[in-house]
Specification:
The chain is mainly beta. The protein has a single domain, classed as Jelly Rolls (Sandwich), CATH 2.60.120.10. The protein contains 3 helices and 24 strands. The radius of gyration is 30 Å and the shape is globular. It starts with 7 loop residues before the first helix and ends in a 16-residue tail after the last strand. The N terminus is likely disordered.
């Protein structure tokens, strides 16, 4: 091992010295090379630190409040919600002020889901007519090309419209679904659907499956209701994208990893995919929200087996929708 010369003049004047091995070295060259090596290591260290910090950025919970006031002088209103958050899915909030009659055309190669959150009216799908009340769902199927909405004088009808593009696999699955799962118009009130239990929820929580699996490919919906204080325990499901919709009087806090945010009534929230998330509701407040699961693959629907129906016979199960003629 060689040591640099102790004399400062020797270093900066590039004077030579001979080692005990008889080899001549330039001290200045060795010193500069040593400094360069240390600088490179230092810069690499800082680059690694910066990269690590950027990769571990805080979890973000995206939430959007619905505009529940239709602009004065207008009988209709539309706003897009959480654009780009759910792949191949467009989400719109639509409001109608009566008296009005509006037609919505449906897009081929897509499934359209209507969730009614406020107000009253009627939906007309071919010859099928259903009265609309808050917290009900309608899904036109069986090649229905359009639906009409009628809203009476002085009434405001607010609903969410989900337009989800079907993949070739979705189209094949839709064709192969059991006949009992095929409808001309799937329609039901949330409160008329099947209750279930889940380990992460307390006995005081009422959970319901609003849209079971294998009716719309890779989509399932349900509701969760409880009085505070209560909570839904922490859990993860990287096999699906999930939205929460705050229903009437909902006032909860949603947590995901190191982030948390309030979710009020008539707000839509996206759970960061793969995050550990949970829900809390304080005393004298209400938990009343809808979860919406968008599965990345049909195999991911195995997750729904964690939901245990409380009614086990077909006799006790609620009737939903209108079957094709």
């Amino acid at each position: 091992m060689f040591r640099p010369a102790a004399n400062k003049n020797e270093i900066f004047n590039s004077e030579k010295f001979t080692s005990n091995l008889g080899k001549t070295h330039h001290v200045k060259k060795n010193i500069i090379q040593s400094y360069c090596n240390k600088s490179i290591i230092k810069y690499l260290y800082f680059a690694i630190v910066i990269f690590a910090v950027s990769c571990s950025s805080p979890t973000e919970i995206v939430v959007q409040n619905l505009q529940m006031q239709i602009p004065s002088g207008s009988n209709s209103f539309t706003e897009e919600l959480l654009p780009g958050e759910i792949a191949e899915t467009k989400i719109e909030h639509i409001g109608y002020y009566g008296p009005t009659e509006q037609t919505v055309k449906l897009i081929d190669g897509n499934t359209t889901i209507f969730l009614f959150v406020s107000g009253n009216g009627t939906i007309h799908a071919d010859s099928i007519i259903r009265n609309l009340t808050p917290e009900s769902i309608a899904i036109p199927m069986n090649e229905i090309g359009q639906v009409r909405f009628k809203v009476p004088d002085g009434e405001e009808l607010h609903f969410l419209k989900f337009t989800k593009k079907l993949s070739p696999q979705d189209v094949e699955d839709l064709y192969n679904f059991p006949e009992e799962n095929k409808y001309a118009l799937f329609f039901t009130k949330f409160t008329d659907t099947e209750p279930y239990t889940e380990k992460i929820k307390s006995p005081n929580t009422v959970s319901r499956t609003v849209l079971p699996a294998d009716i719309v490919p890779r989509v399932s919906l349900g509701t969760v209701e409880a009085k505070g204080p209560d909570e839904v325990g922490a859990h993860e499901h990287p096999m699906l994208d999930q939205l929460f919709l705050g229903l009437t009087d909902n006032d909860i806090t949603v947590h995901a990893d190191d982030a948390s945010t309030e979710l009020k009534a008539y707000s839509l929230l996206h759970i960061p995919i793969g995050s550990s998330h949970w829900v809390t509701v304080d005393e004298n407040k209400k938990m009343n929200y809808m979860w919406m699961d968008f599965f990345l693959t049909k195999e991911g629907q195995e997750w729904l087996k964690t939901h245990k129906p409380t009614s086990t016979t077909k006799k006790n199960k609620p009737k939903m929708g209108i079957k094709p003629i």
